[in-house]
Structure formats: structure tokens, C-alpha cells
Amino acid sequence: MSTITTEADPPRGTAPSAPRRRHRKDDTKLALLFIAPASIGLLVFLVWPLLTGLYYSFTEYTTLTPPQWVGLDNYSRLLTDPVFWNSLKVTVWYVILNIGIQTIVALVIAVLMQRLTQSTVLRSLVLAPYLVSNVVAAIVFLWILDTQLGIVNIFLQWIGFDPISFWANETWVIPTVALVNVWRHMGYTALLLFAGLQSIPAHLYEAARTEGAGEVAMFRRITLPLLRPILALVLIMTIIGSFQVFDTISVTTQGGPADASKVLQMYIYENAFAQYEFGYASALSVALLVILMVITFAQYWMSRAGQSDLD
Q: Which pTM does this prediction carry?
């Protein structure tokens, strides 16, 4: 009985040939092409200014004379500069107020968005203040909180209180700046926390309800522990941003009254563009960078931001 041999079948007595290996196309050049614009931007707008500023911090430099190497003189001056230490104290006070209030309010909003509503419209409205620029928000609140014409002081007088100089009082100025920035950024912070809440399995809440746990108990025993990594990263981001506050103060108080709102960024700006001491301003910038690095690494380590209780 004859057999039919097809092209696909190998002849009898011969071993089947090994399958042909497909040569993978090397995409290295294409990948480098795609990342080149971002890499060039990183080098031009981040690495090069950082290295240049670090060099200038060891020099005496103005726009009229070339840089002259002075070693650690700028840093010695920084350590004995009372305005620097006052600016650091003002900045820390602002960060405490801004981060404390913003985190609590944003966390409450995020939990309410998760537990009470699924409306996309309401979630979008929460983010609306973040779409307003810092300068515009500062100008609007400068009018609203004006001592003579501001609607807030008009209301206070209507109910029998004396007007408050929100922008001209040493006690009120930093809390006022903090509340303005809390209003603008709390929606964005709430959105980040809401994204973290979405990663918590729903069956954990169902099991807790079965055991008779209330909302407060579930928040304390489930939400907060499982949200810790996202909360830690959000705190790191917001703290770094808060230490760099500038535009709100520049528009409203310019560091006054009596340096009560002169934060570090404002002091750096004054030294660089008002007194043209770019060397000393660079040293102040390096000091701020070191402070932020220490705070970031300490907070990351203490909060165990790289670990999750879901693992």
C-alpha cells in the first residue's frame, strides 16, 4: 500500500529539522531615539543648572563681574545669617500648617468620594481649584481678605467682630497663606489619595461589616494601614512643594510684614535678583536642597513607604 508524502511531512528515515529561529529586531536605537528628548531636557533644565548652582555657591558672583572662588565663605555666612534662620523658621511653620490641614481635609474628601458617591461630576468639581493658577488664586484671596473691602471682613463686621488684617498682621499672615494654598491643592491631594483607596480590596470592608465594625473602626483598622504607602508618598510630594512656596507670597505680601512671611524661596529670590548676590543665593539654594533631601529620606524610612500591608 503506497503512502502519500506531502511537502509538510519530512521523508521517511530523516530526522525532523529544527524550527527556524526568528531573529529579534534590535529596538535599542529606536528606544534611544524616543528617550532622547526627555534626556536632553533633563540634562539641560535639571542636571546642568544643579551643577552650575553648586559651583556658584562656592563663588562670589554678580552679573557685572565674573565668578571669584571664595570656598566655604558663603556657607559660613549662611550659618550666622539671622535672616536665613528666620526664613527657615517661617517656612517650617508654613509647611506644618499647610500639610497638616491639607492632608486631613484631602483624606476626608477622598474617603467621602469613595464611600458616598460615584458621581464623576462631583469628583471633577473637587479638582477644580487646582486648575486655577497660584497667582490668580492669590490675587482673588487678596481681594476677598482685604481689610477694608474684603467680603470676609465685611461679614465679620456685620456679625459684630472687628476687621482682621489677614495680610498685614504678623500672627495671621502665614496661616492665611497656608489656607489659600490648602484651598487650591486639597482637591489634587484628595484625588491621589482616592486613587490609593481604590486599591484596597472591597471584601475587607464587607468582612468588617459582618463582624459589626462601624465606619470609624474600618477607617482606623483598614483604610489607614493599607493607605500608608500612598499617604507617605503624597506627604513627601506635598512637603517638597510646600518648602518651595513663592508665588503666593510674592503676589500678596512680598515677605512682609517685618519678614513675618519671608520664606526661604523669597529670601533666595531677593538675594539673587534684588541684591545680585548670585553666589550667596546659590548657597541658600543648596542648603534648601540638602534640607529637602534629609526630610525626604527620613520620612520615607520612618513611614516605610516602599512596603504595603497588602503584600
A: 0.85
